[in-house]
Amino acid sequence: MPIDAVPQWLNNGDNAWQMIASTLIGLQSMPGLVVLYGSIVKKKWAVNSAFMALYSFASSLIVWVLLGFQMAFGERLLPFWGKAGPALSQDYLVKRARIPATMQFYNNGTVETPMVEPFYPQATLVLFHFMYAAITLILLAGSVLGRMNIKAWMVFSPLWLLFSYTVGAFSLWGGGFLYHWGVIDYSGGYVIHLSSGIAGFTAAYWVGPRIKSDRERFSPNNVLLMIVGAGLLWLGWSGFNGGAPYAANITAPIAVLNTHICAATSLLMWTGLDVAFFGKPSVIGAIQGMMTGLVCITPAAGLVHAWAAVVMGLLSGSIPWFTMMILHKKSSLLQKVDDTLAVFHTHAIAGLLGGILTGILAVPELANIELPVPGTKGFAYGGSFTQVLKQIAAALFIIVWNIFVTTAILIAIGWFIPLRMPDDQLMIGDDAAHGEEAYALWGDGEKFDVMRHETIPHASRGNDDVQQQLNNIAARGVTIQL
């Protein structure tokens, strides 16, 4: 059957924007988080940390098109799960995009809200949501950097995507019970950030801590590259939140503007608190403040006023700061669990905060454009406090499911593959895990011994031999005490 290259239902603007948004989200992961993870850790963990992100991105795509997309956005199987199936055939990918379980009905069985059917091919929707799925796994990885067995991670990544991520995505976005109940999650405060924060914290508990020397000192190996990675993450959020409406409509630019306002406010708030309490601004702190602002606005981005984005930025720059800098030091549980990049604070706490604030600050006019349940509005605009309770209940579902599934997967993997690298390998880092190192420099704390026999040129062997020996020395790298 011939295929129409430009069918009547295709909106070129929507299709172009959705693919651009997908690319922006992809750049957040590749190279954004790859660069950020590779630079924010100690030098000896740069390769391992970057590779965990790289592997997750690749493995997620294959799992997504084989089974994951339809489990998250296909026909309903259970109230919280779609029917598994491939998204690979030409017939499936070129037809108009649709999310079949999103049709909303009145109690008498008549249609209240039609099925979500964006004006572009299914392939565009599959690609867009793959980018969301991949970055969720990469964010989760931040909790276990610096000690998780890479082989265990290679098994964990696809299993967690299938059995945890797809449940949250279907429940809140794909037409599951939380979607039809009227829970608001504009672009992933719960589906992506709360789930990655809780799953990451749970994984950190089961994998175990880094070695003592790494926990005590884990300074970035390249602060400038760390800022580059963070910058890619920030600007990529234009696609992250701007693509959520599935169209280049009126809420897309509102979502993008609110995203940047909240992130900037949160960064400034976090930095101000660092200066007030510690006497100097911290680059890592600024990045954490940026991150919490981006995460907090995500469930509300296209549904709130710009002034509300400022309020959310002030809260996201202070409440996660308090939980990380004050509460963390007083909690025995938080002290026990070695969450390497504090994903629990920057994503779980910030995502939960954003979800609750969305139930308060969602504007009725914008909510009616985007949400399946007509009349949905925030508590501040005359809505029932029930909306806030719905947001809390949905968060509890995501938290409990992620704790249960992450635990089950890791225990099962642990029967066959050690979750944590041995201590002797943890002392070495990348070279033990991959046989590779990030920089052509002498090892951490290791001195170059100029008196070693093989490094001393012998003139008695002739000029050619001496030159060859000097070349061999130069090829080994620069002598540096790190």
Describe the structure.
The protein has helices at 12-40, 46-73, 90-94, 122-141, 150-172, 177-181, 189-207, 212-216, 223-242, 251-278, 283-297, 306-316, 319-330, 332-336, 343-361, 364-370, 386-414, 423-428, 430-434, 463-475, and strands at residues 76-78, 81-82, 104-105, 111-113. The chain is an all-alpha fold. The chain has a two-stranded antiparallel ribbon. The protein has a two-stranded antiparallel sheet with strand order 3-4. The longest helix is centred in the N-terminal third of the chain and has 29 residues, at 12-40. It starts with 11 loop residues before the first helix and ends in a 7-residue tail after the last helix.
Mean pLDDT: 90
The helix content is: 55-70%
Counting DSSP H or I runs of 4 or more residues, the number of helices is 20
Give the overall form.
Answer: globular
CATH topology: Ammonium transporter fold
